Amino acid sequence: MSPRQRVALSEPRADEVRKTTCYMCACRCGINVHIKGGKIRYIEGNRDHPVNKGVLCAKGSAGIMQHYAPARLNAPLKRVGPRGSGEFEEISWDEALAIATDWLGTVRQNDPKKLAFFTGRDQSQSLTGFWAQQYGTPNYAAHGGFCSVNMAAAGIMTIGGAFWEFGAPDWERTKLFVMFGVAEDHDSNPIKMGIAKLKQRGARFVSVNPVRTGYSAVADNWIGIRPGTDGLLILSVIHELLKARKIDVDYLARYTNAPWLVIDAPGTAEHGLFARDGEGRAQVYETVTERVVPVGTKGARVGLSGRVQLQDGRFAVPSFQLLAEKYLDEKYAPEKVAKQTGLAVDTIRGLAGEIARVAFDEPISIDQPWTDMNGERHQAYIGRPVSFHAMRGLSAHSNGFQTTRALHLLQVLIGAIDCPGGFRFEPPYPKPLAAHPTPHGRAEHFGSNKPLSGPHLGFPRGPEDLLVDEDGRPARIDKAFSWDAPISAHGMMHMVIANAHAGDPYPIDVLFLYMANMAWNSSMNTAGTIKMLEDKDPATGEYRIPKIIYSDAYASEMVAYADLVLPDTTYLERHDCISLLDRPISEPDAVQDAIRWPVVEPDRDVRGFQTVLLDLGARLDLPGFTDGHGKALYKDYADYIVRHERRPGIGPLAGFRGPKGDRTGRGAANPDQLRRYIENGSFFSAHIPMEAQFFKHANQAYQDFAVRMGFFDTPQPVTFQLYQETLQKFRLSAQGLRQPVAPQTHAARILEAFDPLPDWYEPLGEALVDGERYPYHAITQRPAAMYHSWGSMNAWLRQIHTKNPLYVPGPICDELGLADGDWAWIASHHGRIKVQVARMEAVNSSTLWTWNAIGKRKGAWGLDRQAPEATKGFLMNHLIHELLPLKKDGLRWSNSDPVTGQAAWYDLRVSIEKADAGEESEPQFAPLAQPGRPEPHPAVLRYGQEWTK
């Protein structure tokens, strides 16, 4: 097709075309919404948008059916029947907000921690977190605890940023791209566009994933690894690189803590910590003068090995020496790890060899002088053109934090961070750990009718920052930032309902959820969670979780368990802010943010959740939401986006600031800001000067640019933390050498999981079950046509995945006599499900898998009760418990990473046996009633036509 023909196809087919931002996944692509007769008729990609450049996937195009879904809620609802019955009556917004204000106000007055406020995959966490902080409850977090906290925490603590929304491969220049465990729903447009560029240039693409679908299907090499062993593979590659001396020594000396001296004084409170001078500066050994000097000493040539004596008589060694000694151990040799990973020795050694060859035999250079933070002038950017990307396949294991740190260690060892051809940071990252807050939520941080003294989420610098009381009991309902999961930087949403039901560490009065389908897809132990939501105290007859407020745009399974439902708008009916304070749409070469705005007005009695939250903040007279005299500061979320300032001159949006709209990053509020965004395609982009585009962690020009933009008030360079001192502090506490001392019940797991150098250990759930009884792994992946469970109500996307089979490796099918369409029982230590199977060859031979978020409960999402998603679809969640199996010590731990609390969805071990043919998957539950008034719902099937059911 010629360019002229492409332009012709893009001419408006409607009365008006309005440009906004897609919300069908988290790519945040630009879209053109065609409107005719006041209705949305067509959605296409915006060719001027910097993220997708006009490319739009099936999800984005199907956004029209997200908007016209029969599952949309129509008005506020008050429960009138038992929980789970779906029996509601519609009420006015005045009544709904009065009820919510009464419930929330009583809790705030008496004991604010009795409110648990948790949000799902929304994109307004800077607002929801601010609201919860001003309310004063310690119990707030978003969905990251059961999605990606291992990725974020490991990345930020190691390199100052992370995969996914904090950085991207240098698609234009990389020569070798290695992807670990990424499903097709994440970052789909940018990744597809990037892979196409690789293919056009002849660059090699390697995918490490137990399942060969989607991205893996077009990879040049597919490495079908056994789930949970990625870290072992990575450390074996590092072993090979160290043996071959294929590491970038200059890069390590300049940009990492490899030369920092680590105190060698076993049995003392500072063993394994960095040697520091009186001003707190880390110490290094200078090889020319043979002296111990502070980091950053001008002209110092630092040593990476050797044992030196400090002024106080103690000895210390560079952290790189500890690193080399650890990974040169033969236990990491390919021959030693091949069986555990399920890979051939030649595959492991070949991957290491290819990484070394491309990194060191094919470096690339960009002729651009730049100056580093030490004032040294460089004449060019030199790059190692190897890039990596990873997501939930690494993250959703109980060893995921250390595995992800291992991958970042590999990147750093070859010098492939933020250089041409490598992984590149996206503003406002990188940020050093010191730029992030510590968590707030201990008793001294809050009180009745008082704001929390700081943000809920952050990074502890050591055990002293944990949110526990004097007896070590958790301050938060999810037990985040306690000894159970000390560095749970995103909270532990998957534990909220179970802990609240058990009253452990204390009971709550109100559970307030937004876009979090905790009764179904977003919970482990789905059947058990439903019972917890329905369970009553026999002594009082009251629900164990007394009050549940839920906000969503659609009739998900969770709606049926709410006592009060606040109906949200669709993404095409409201304002949203894709902010630099939250999750922006930046690219490595540009600072970017975006908005959504109401391209159509709601035709139902619904309100955007963010506006409702602002209204509740004003009714509760929360600081920051009223003017001190009880008058609301903001009339709605659009007003908040424009006028709110987190710091003087720093607001949610970076573009068109100042009275004239000519300021970027810093500047006074501009009342015309949203109109300027809309005129610009609903996004803003500020190009990063070429002198500042690479080595952002140590580039003086970039650091100055970041200060001008308002990311920091002073430069914040990042030193990559290969050896993580914070983890060692926890080990010292577990050894009883550092205050506060870890409880004896937690000491062994801290010593095992908190190695300051990236480590691998067998996934906890796998280690605690009988491997002979449950010989197979079972995992889920999200398909390209869905994102989490967001496509559940979408008529077009549902036709792509109406049901989900369990994919079974060919050899297992042969052994059990299974053929496509047969039924099988899948059992774990916790439960059993009956599902249909399909044979698959392109999968790890010990791994069963299925698409996630396809199975639905009958009656939910506006679907017919006989919809195949409900009759043939299923959830693996029924096999997964939120707690690990009982240990010999009598304790049951959260089924999570012991460092971050990340839900360990992928540690599941199962058995399979052939079952008699059936009509429906099992288990099945009683159908849900459609909440609110039943009425016909128009569904636009194709342009210009309507069908009414």
Automatic annotation (TrEMBL):
Domain named 4Fe-4S Mo/W bis-MGD-type is located at 15-71
Cite the PROSITE patterns for this sequence.
4FE4S_MOW_BIS_MGD
Q: Where is this region: Disordered?
A: 916-949
* SUPFAM superfamilies per record: ADC-like, Formate dehydrogenase/DMSO reductase, domains 1-3
Record keywords? 4Fe-4S, Iron, Iron-sulfur, Metal-binding, Oxidoreductase
Give the location in the cell. Cell envelope
What cofactor does this one take?
[4Fe-4S] cluster
One Pfam match: Molybdop_Fe4S4
Q: Which Gene3D superfamilies match?
A: 2.40.40.20, 3.30.200.210, 3.40.50.740, Dimethylsulfoxide Reductase, domain 2
Q: Which family does it belong to?
A: Belongs to the prokaryotic molybdopterin-containing oxidoreductase family.
Q: What is this protein called?
A: Molybdopterin oxidoreductase family protein
Source organism: Aquamicrobium soli
